[in-house]
Amino acid sequence: MRAGVAQEGTGCPFDRFRVAIAKAVDGYTVTTTKAIALRAPTAEPDEGGEAMPRGGKRAFDEEAALDVALELFWRQGYEATSIADLTQAMDIRPPSLYAAFGNKRQLFEKVLDRYAQARSPLSREALAQPTAREVALRLLTGLVEAYTTPGKPRGCLTVQAGLASGEDGRAIVEVLKAARNDYRKAVQDRFEKAVADGDLPADIDCKALARFLMATAEGLAVNAAADAPREELLAAAVLAARVVPAG
Asked: What are the residues whose beta carbons fall under 8 Å from the beta carbon of 39, sequence distance 6 or more?
């Protein structure tokens, strides 16, 4: 029997990602392998310079500025990107950045939310495929296409940005880890539904299968960032998807 679409209530993993980011911004507790309290620090005080025009309207395009910040964090990672790098790339002064987005970590959380919005349609489409193998195939090939989009940084922001070790960077790593765990759990839930529908064998380890799939996706992201050819990554994605038993 072919499995139906992903059951309602499973939720798109990138939607869960956005919830994790929102909780981080509001200072709630984010749960990963251990519970951590993550409270976004207050914005640094203004350092003189340009003021917001009267009426509260900013003198720059915030959406465009977020896109610039997203690409910079994506290329350089969280810790390697400084406020000076950001203001230079965004073509604004530090007081304007703090007034519009908060401090560096708050800006990064806004960037992650924007990134999650862009990735959500692929996740929904993949989880809605009629069989578990088709879920794996669409997810992996779709991610490879996203990782190698012309004109964009290669790889995955949630992987590259998590390569951090400093005090502030560790908090970001925990947010990203929680997001990846949610993504893996959504895939595991979909495989468990496939077992219930008779699409996957009853004795299959859905947790291990989901872990394999997400480890593969992250490995493909790392290879994409290292300029591996798209066609080779797509071939690897197709091969990896075959590990999932056909219905």
From this structure: 27
Q: Is the pTM of this model over 0.70?
A: yes
Asked if 127 contacts 190 with a C-beta cutoff of 8 angstroms, the reply is yes
- What the chain holds in terms of domains, given with CATH numbers, is 13-37+60-241 (1.10.357.10)
- Between strands 35-37 and 29-31, the pairing is antiparallel
DSSP 8-state code for residue 30: E
Structure tokens at 117: 């919005």
Residue 101 φ then ψ, to 5° = -125, -10
Q: How far is CA 229 from CA 138, 156, 195, 235, in A?
A: 19, 15, 35, 10
DSSP 40: P
Task: Provide φ and ψ at 36, rounded to 5°.
Answer: -130, 145
Identify whether the C-beta of residue 106 lies closer than 8 Å to the C-beta of residue 40: yes
Chain segment 82-116, per-residue pLDDT in tens: 999 999 999 999 999 999 999 998 999 899 889 88
241 within 8 A of 129, measured Cβ to Cβ: no
In angstroms and rounded to an integer, the radius of gyration of the C-alpha atoms of the chain is 20
CB 191 within 8 A of CB 6: no
Q: How far is the first Cα of the chain from the last one, in angstroms, to the nearest whole number?
A: 7
